Amino acid sequence: MTLGLDLGTSGIKALLLDGDTTIATATAPLTVQRPAPGWSEQHPAEWWQATERCLDELAAKHPRALAAVLGIGLSGQMHGATLLGADDEVLRPCILWNDARSGAQCAELEAPAVHLRELTGNPAMAGFTAPKLLWMREHEPEVFARVAKVLLPKAWLRWKLSGEFIEEMSDASGTLWLDVARRCWSAELLAACGLTEAQMPRLVEGSEPAGQLRSEWVRRWGFDHTPVIAGGAGDNAAGAVGVGAVKAGDAFVSLGTSGVLWATTAGFAPAAHQGVHAFCHALPGLWHQMGVQLSAAASLAWWARTNGVNESQLLNELDRSQTSPASCWFMPYLSGDRTPHNDSEVRGGFMHVSADTGRADMTQAVLEGVAFAFRDARDALATAGTQLMDADLLGGGARSAQWSQILADVLGMPLHQIEGGEHGCALGAARLARTAAGGEARYAKSQRLRSFEPDARRLAFYNEAHHRWRTLYELARQVPPPPNPPVVARATAT
What is the pLDDT of residues 334-392, one digit of tens each? Predict the structure, then answer.
């Protein structure tokens, strides 16, 4: 029996796994604070409170299954800057992956003397961890001076669980401090941010042991034995392990808060000029490419919240017999864009709205705008030499058959809804825990439940629509933002 813990942006998910059978899940929500335009933060204390709620629930409802757990795997949202002082206290709220404040600092990392793209295979993007620390050094120097450890979100959660500072390769790849080809910290890249390896956690592979559960938690939740904690994985790499995307050529589309087009690769295959991410996989000897958009299902959630309804109600209003693109456009750049534009400042919105446009038209435009952004990512991966023939579907947005069909039509390739796709990250973490605890390294592919084949007629419509939609980025980039109120300084969190 193993346990997977997935620290997402919107919540914590816990999954109990017996072999390849999911026994139970528990979830607890999280909130995001936005103290200034383009900022996105969470306090780690909320992560721990949500983790406690999940484990308390499993202990109450499934005490014998939880007691039998031998390994715990961790999955987590990537890139977040969690800063600890000399006494292991959290110095300030974590700056999250979709925070755009450090766009100006990216230029420092792109200087030729830094060798960023040679070492990491990735461009500097505001969402990554390294630019956040440069921003801290410039704007919060008193906090920066106190930094003893820089942890990604799940590494902080591991420290709470085990008392050890350890990270694994897939998540570390998104810091811009990892030599991705050699799978080790780069002293050169750390020095460019005024940091040293002593401020980083120890590195392991995702399937390796990485600490044990503290005795106080063993007693609290009634484990029969002290579980080993696996290295785990960044959220997308964990999803890949969960759906069995562990061989070169395996691919999936993750339609979660963010959007990811993933391709497993046998070697390090960078394409930084296209905004493609080239990271380590969670398993040794494997890497992957990703095209990423920052607001996928988050775009639909924003639209639902704006209308005061839930996403299901919006989707139920759609005309399921619709065979042509929406009558208006939507650009899903609510938090900027990564692939292919690498633009933290651009913002989204609707275009070509008329007096005849209704809410259902705009909802369809949201679904299509996200799908067009995935098409941009597919084209970027193709430029990097990765031709995708089909892909599995992950994430909460993939539960919508209509959205899944739109994606298949826009991407021009079959997509497959799979069993347990909404639990992919937690499932992958639990599978890695099984290996770390001495069990079989088994990462079978998920069963396909339904396939969406691209319709030739709609594909033709969407090819033309995407060609026009792509021109909107340049328009959006040129529109200046309205003036923002000054940022009010706040007390440092302790």
Answer: 989 989 998 888 999 999 999 999 999 999 999 999 999 999 999 999 988 888 999 99
Reduce the DSSP state of residue 29 to 3 states and report it.
Answer: strand
Provide the 10 A C-beta neighbour count for residue 379: 17
With beta carbons less than 8 A apart as the criterion, state whether 307 and 359 touch.
Answer: yes
Q: Which residue has the tokens 């296209």?
A: 274
How many Å from the N-terminal Cα to the C-terminal Cα in the chain?
A: 37
| Cα–Cα dist 377/117, whole Å | 19
Alpha carbon distance 87, 81 (integer Å): 17
Question: pLDDT tens digit string along 57-83?
Answer: 999 999 999 999 999 999 999 999 999
Long-range contact pairs involving 396-401 (C-beta distance under 8 Å, separation at least 24): 396/255, 396/256, 396/297, 396/422, 397/255, 397/256, 397/296, 397/297, 397/300, 397/370, 398/253, 398/255, 398/422, 400/315, 400/367, 401/450, 401/452
Q: What is the dihedral of CA 43, 49, 52, 58, to 10 degrees?
A: -100
pTM: predicted TM-score of the whole model, two decimal places: 0.87
DSSP structure string for 89-149: -B-SPEEPTT--TTGGGHHHHTSGGG-HHHHHSS---TTSHHHHHHHHHHH-HHHHTT--E
Distances (CA, A) of 469 to 73, 134, 292, 326: 41, 35, 18, 12
Q: Decide: helix, strand or coil at residue 286.
A: coil
SS3 322: coil
Q: How confident is the model at residue 486 (pLDDT cuts 50, 70, 90)?
A: low
pLDDT at position 487 is 55
Q: Residue 391: in which H helix or E strand, if any?
A: strand 391-394
Vertex 41, ends 97 and 494: CA angle to 5°? 125
Which residues are known catalytic residues?
A: 235
- At 368, list the tokens: 């299509």
Question: How far apart (Å, rounded) are the C-alpha atoms in residues 389 and 374?
Answer: 14
Q: Tokens in use for 66?
A: 């939880």
Cα-flanking dihedrals φ and ψ of residue 27, to 5°? -135, 155
- Which residues lie across from 76 on neighbouring strands? 7, 234
Report the distance separating Cα 129 and Cα 144, nearest Å: 14
